[in-house]
Each structure stands twice: as structure tokens, then as C-alpha cells.
Amino acid sequence: MMQFSETPPPSLHQITSFPDLPMNNNNQINRTCPWPGFPTSKALGSFGDANCMEQLLVHCANAIESNDATLAQQILWVLNNIAPPDGDSNQRLTCGFLRALIARAANVGTCKMFTAMANAHANLAITTHKFSVIELASFVDLTPWHRFGFAAANAAILEVAEGFSVIHIVDLSLTHCMQIPTLIDALASRPEGPPLVKLTVAGATEDVPPMLDLSYEELGSKLVNFARSRNVMLEFRVIPSTSSDGFSALIEELRVQHLVCADSGEALIVNCHMMLHYIPEETLSTIHNTNSSPYSLESSSPSYHRTMFLKSLRSLNPTIVVLVDEDADFTSNNLVCRLRSAFNYLWIPYDTMDTFLPRGSKQRQWYEADICWKIENVIAHEGPRRIERLEPKSRWAQRMRNVNFRSVMFSEDAVSEVKHMLDEHAAGWGFKKEEEDLVLTWKGHNVVFATAWVPA
Hints:
Blueprint: H1 50-65, H2 69-82, H3 89-108, H4 112-121, E1 130-131, H5 133-140, H6 144-161, E2 166-173, H7 180-188, E3 196-202, E4 211-212, H8 216-229, E5 234-239, H9 248-261, E6 267-273, H10 305-315, E7 320-326, H11 335-353, H12 362-380, H13 393-402, E8 405-408, H14 412-422, E9 429-434, E10 437-442, E11 445-455
Parallel strand pairs: 1-4, 2-3, 2-6, 3-5, 6-7
Antiparallel strand pairs: 7-11, 8-11, 9-10, 10-11
Helix pairs in contact: 1-2, 1-3, 1-11, 2-3, 3-4, 3-11, 3-12, 6-14, 11-12
């Protein structure tokens, strides 16, 4: 079995009292009652409920947005006392949002209290781990969060690849090709023999967790060697391209290839695994350019990149497009709406974590660091810096139909693969069919969707 590195990463949470905030002689933050109706520290236990924690976070966000330093300080003190970084899943979730709100307050920086937070913010920096290939392969295997999409996508790809001697896979995956070895294994055992596999990836420049500790060229070499060991010929190519402009360099390169290879009879398969939500969408262009906002955008900022990307993809006439992503909405320009949406979705990874990772393990630290990175990006940043812009399945489906794709149903083989995979994990995991699509669930709540599309 693959093992994780024995070198532990730095401690994730270092939430302490705010050093430059008002203190008493005992070096404690002043414990004045936050506002009428709020309890003293002796009654803080009543705030352990997730709904109460969410309401506190909402009040704090409103205070920061309205530049009410006193109220923000008081709520942050309460949150800091009821949400320890080593508490239960709700407390750890709330602690992640606490950090993000402090980071946002530091970004505002329009009063002394927020300046103090900026000084303290250096101690709250999130340290994300850089994985080796073996570590990452083992890491994504811990939970169905990614394996669900792998199983559904690979089954759909195998089905459409039947009869093709050459398949070209464009892999836009957050997990750095981690689903490809399983696909190569399956292709190697095809009755008609394995095809030639052309694998193209976008060498993105953004540092988005999970991150690898090696280059894509080195990763490609490992994949080529693995495929060779399975008697599969693999050609690997990296095209430097970024989600910030809708992977325009990748699309242009694919367009050139399409003109050259249009009559070659190869299958063009586009695998989109939790990457398309990093492409800017329409709300990015709706923030007004005002001198008072630290998050203002120039009027010439690009927009509609998601639509442009999908239109360009459709022009390539792909054999199939598989779209897998997290089923949530983080696109609102209203901070409170976004906070509520994120809080009511990101409780899931914290809740599931207790079923497969022991407290104090380095894997758990890595896992929580990646979630905290996502929370901070959603809450603390605006404009182009806020790249975690999830959209729900229904909106992606409408986008695909608008550019003349039609959805196709996953086969019974795909459903069987997903069922078999889920049998290896905790009982809270499940899945359901929604029309042609598959949806991963945790305790009945939607987590990840898998959809398959062909040109209409």
C-alpha cells in the first residue's frame, strides 16, 4: 500500500488572541458583553450549535462590510472562544470561516482594529502541502469526493472509446491526472487491444490545492512509463494555459490539431474534473469600479469566459465531454449570500473527515488546509483574486445546452462502478440519478455531480 511521507507539515491552525486588540492587565481581550442580549464567557456553550455559529459569522461579515470595528471585534472574540481549531466538525468549520473573515478585515484595513488584524494575519497563514505523486494518489483514494467522478467519467470514456484505435484525452483535472492510471488499466484489457492514447493537459499557472511537488513534464514521464508497463502507447503533452482566460491557449492549440486531424478518425474526449469553475464567469464583470472599494475592477475586465470556452469546445466537435464538479453556488457578489452558501456546503468535508482520518494525522492537516484555502478564497477575496466560483449542476447544464450540447445517460456499467466504489467507504455516502446525471451525496445532501455531453 502507498504510504504518506513521514515528514509532517507545519501546524495548520494557529488561532490565538489578536495581539494588537484592546487587552486588560491579564493579557486577555476585554470581555465586555458584545452587544445587548449577548452572553458573557460563562454562557458561551450555548453557541455551539451550527445554526448559531452561522448567524455569528453572518453578523461578523456584516460588521466588517459596514466598517463597524467594535462590533466586528466583539463577534470575533466570541467566535474565537467557541470555535477551537481542534474541536468537532462544526467548530473546525467555523474556525476556517473565522480565519477567512480576519483575512478579509485585514484586506479592508480602514481602521485601527482592522490594521491590528492585518498585523496578526501573518500568524494565520494557511500552509498547503505539496504532494508527491504517491501521496496524492493515496490522498484522493481516501474519500469518494474525487473517486466518484473518476469512476463515472472513466466508465463513460471507455464506452465511447470502443472501436477507436486512437483516442485523444484532454484532461482538465484538479487532481493532476490521478484518474488516468485506472483508465489506462481498463484500456489495456480491451478485447480489440489498447488504443494509442494521446493525453493533453493544461499546464496551469495558478497554485490551487491540491498541489504537486513535481513538474507536469515529470508527471508525464511517470504516466508514459506506467502506460508502457501495461502495453499501452501513451503520448503526453503539456500546453501552458490558464483558467483565468478560459484556457484560450489550450483551445487554440486544439483547434489547430482539429484542422490537421479532422479526418484521422480519432476520438476527442474532454474530461473536466473540478476545473471549469476556476474560469471567470459573468458576476466578475458586475462589480462596479469605485474608488472606495479595494476590490474594484477595471471596466475592461474579461467576462463570459465560461460561455466562450464551451462554445470553442463545441466547435471542436468532441466525441464526448465529461463534466464533474462540486454542486454548490459560490458566485454571488454579496458576501453574506456567499458565506451562507459556503457554510452550508463545506460542512460536508469536515463531517466526513471524522470517518476516515484520525485526529492529529498529517493527512487530516493537509485535507483541512485545502478546505481552509477554499474558504479563504471565497470569503476574503473579491474580483480576479476570488477564483473559487462554483456553480450548481443546473446552471452548468443550461450552459451546455445553450452552446448546443445534449446530455447523455450514464450506462449501467458506470452505475455499477460507482456503487462498487462507494461500498469501500463510510455508510453516509450514497448517490442518486437525476435525469441523465449522477450525483454523489453525503447523508442525503448533494456533494458532487457527474454529467456527460455530446454534440447535439
